[in-house]
Write a structure and sequence with these properties.
The chain is mainly α. It is built from 21 helices and two strands. It starts with a strand and ends in a 15-residue tail after the last helix.
């Protein structure tokens, strides 16, 4: 599918399909690396954080996950600055290399049983490195596709980027489940948990080869040719009052969407394994079909935002999430004893559908919100905080609230409160961005 880029239709021609595949495949692999840890968090809590209290071990393993997520804004600042200074491709390529090295090392780490406290310390270091890399990955993928796509269909094309996190989770669950079934419980706990991490080293090589073939985005090339790139994108992003307001607005919008996403696709599995006491295999077999059914809706809601606007879809999703999440989890509890697998799949699918609605249009909105000269930096910092600190915080905060209160639904207080804050802020300050023509900006 060849598309002519530029408003006048006479500039360079790209194959948008290849750009989308190369960008999203790399992102899927990066999310896969991240979510293998999430899928194995209960197992890793025993391997790296053993204690007489399983709940405390789980919280320690989740804390290591969140620590990696917490540095994502710093990664966004580092890689975003490189993307605005040097170019989108350089930052985009570097992020996946760092992420791949981290995943490979995770599969080679010694366990607590063999080296004691050194093992969790090394795991924490690797998680932090991966968090830094992922901080630059999302912005790179979203911007790369958006700065190739036509203005009229930006939501549709960037919807593929929004689906990559869910696809990465699907891939991680599939590999983890296949390894668990083929090796059996004992060997899986002993050494089989390493296999999914090591698989990523092969996938990363494929992604690097694809990204190497990409050229710089047409908009950044035009921006550089017009000598309109920023000399200090981080300072400009954070000190310009108008842009700082954009960053804060983006942070709030990302936070609501990310909390809904993490509740649907991460906390639901933790809830099934800890509260409902389903084993890893059963909960994984519930998650997989729900995720597979839900993944295409990220693109659908991105497309819908091209037709009706980003604001309507995003804010309606936050409202729906705040209303529906608690009833959906009450339903999961109701149909868990004995487990009614089809109904549990349906209830998780409805959560994934909400996350697709909240996340599908988000990349297009973020790209349109920021000027091209500081787009990579501003977008990555806002997304890093909203997802890495607030969204990923769901997987630690929600179980901690349950543990502290003894109420199995207490964790959902967080999952409802953040989307409500997003809704109220969005209604007051969010402006529709669908009509913004990012192709016109560099030439001004």
């Amino acid at each position: 599918m060849h598309i002519v880029y530029g408003r006048d239709g006479s500039s360079q021609t790209r194959t948008l399909s290849f750009v989308t595949v190369a960008s999203t495949l790399g992102s899927v692999i990066e999310w896969y690396d991240l979510f293998v840890y999430g899928a194995l968090v209960v197992v890793l809590s025993q391997v790296f954080f053993p204690s007489p209290t399983p709940a405390l071990s789980l919280l320690a393993a989740l804390a290591a996950f969140v620590a990696g997520a917490a540095v994502r804004p710093f990664g966004g600042a580092v890689f975003g600055r490189l993307g605005d200074l040097v170019g989108r491709k350089f930052a985009f390529l570097l992020s996946i290399i760092v992420m791949g090295v981290g995943a490979t090392f995770t599969g080679l780490l010694p366990t607590y049983a063999s080296v004691g406290l050194v093992a969790p310390a090394l795991l924490l270091i690797v998680r932090v490195l991966q968090g830094l890399a992922l901080g630059g990955e999302y912005g790179g993928a979203a911007i790369y596709i958006a700065e190739h796509a036509p203005d009229r269909s930006r939501g549709y094309w960037t919807g593929y980027v929004q689906a990559t996190a869910t696809c990465g989770l699907i891939l991680s669950l599939a590999v983890v489940l296949a390894t668990r079934v083929s090796l059996g419980q004992d060997d899986f706990l002993l050494w089989g948990w390493r296999v999914p991490f090591l698989v990523s080293s092969v996938l990363v090589v494929m992604a690097i080869l694809l990204r190497w073939r990409l050229k710089e985005t047409p908009i950044f090339t035009k921006l550089k040719g017009a000598k309109k790139t920023s000399d200090a994108p981080l300072r400009e992003s954070m000190t310009d009052k108008t842009n700082l307001r954009r960053v804060l607005l983006a942070l709030v919008l990302v936070s609501g969407s990310s909390v809904i996403w993490h509740t649907a696709q991460f906390y639901s599995m933790i809830f099934m394994q800890t509260v409902l006491e389903l084993d890893f295999l059963a909960s994984g077999l519930i998650m997989l079909p729900a995720l597979l059914l839900g993944a295409p809706f990220f693109v659908l809601f991105g497309w819908l935002s091209d037709k009706v606007g980003r604001k309507k879809v995003l804010l309606l999703a936050n409202l729906a999430g705040a209303i529906a999440l608690i009833p959906l989890y009450v339903g999961m509890k109701t149909f868990s004893s004995p487990p009614n697998i089809p109904l549990l799949v349906a209830l998780v699918f409805l959560q994934v559908l909400l996350s697709a609605m909240a996340y599908g249009p988000l990349a297009a909105f973020l790209v349109e919100l920021f000027p091209a000269r500081i787009r990579y930096t501003s977008l990555s910092v806002a997304h890093g905080v909203g997802t890495g600190d607030i969204g990923d915080g769901t997987v630690l905060i929600a179980p901690a609230l349950v543990l502290a209160t003894g109420n199995i639904y207490a964790g959902l207080i967080w999952s409802v409160a953040v989307p409500l804050i997003t809704l109220s802020v969005g209604l007051r300050y969010m402006r529709e961005t669908r009509e913004i023509k990012i192709w016109e900006e560099p030439g001004k």
